[in-house]
UniProtKB/TrEMBL annotation:
Transmembrane segments: none annotated. InterPro entries: BlaI_family (IPR005650), WH-like_DNA-bd_sf (IPR036388), WH_DNA-bd_sf (IPR036390). This is BlaI/MecI/CopY family transcriptional regulator. Belongs to the BlaI transcriptional regulatory family. Keywords: DNA-binding, Transcription, Transcription regulation. The keyword Plastid does not apply. It comes from the Bacteria. Pfam families: Penicillinase_R (PF03965). The keyword Isomerase does not apply.
Amino acid sequence: MSLSKTEEDLMNHLWKLEKAFMKDLLDAYPEPKPATTTVATLLKRMIDKGFVDYKLYGKSREYFPLVKKKDYFSKHVNGLIKNFFNDSASQFASFFTKETNLSKKELEDLKALIDSEIKKKPN
């Protein structure tokens, strides 16, 4: 199950806030802010999909994510690798490093990160 672009935008605000009432979510958006009814509809769909839940305080709902941002994006990156790069992380890495105009510093940081992960792996 995945989120639409507008649901993902809302989910990013919720991940950042960790828990939020409707007012908090609306305040997190830049101008022009979406209508309250739009955000309510998105939240209902996200609850139905199992991404969000809420606690009731009187008539107010405090929303919180049920899915961690890292888990959501990890699943999508793995799906991307599987569907567009023949399930090959090497093909993905090759495409990513050649086609994204990374600076020399960014490439060096990426190499250091990979070297660090290699050292953690058992022989």
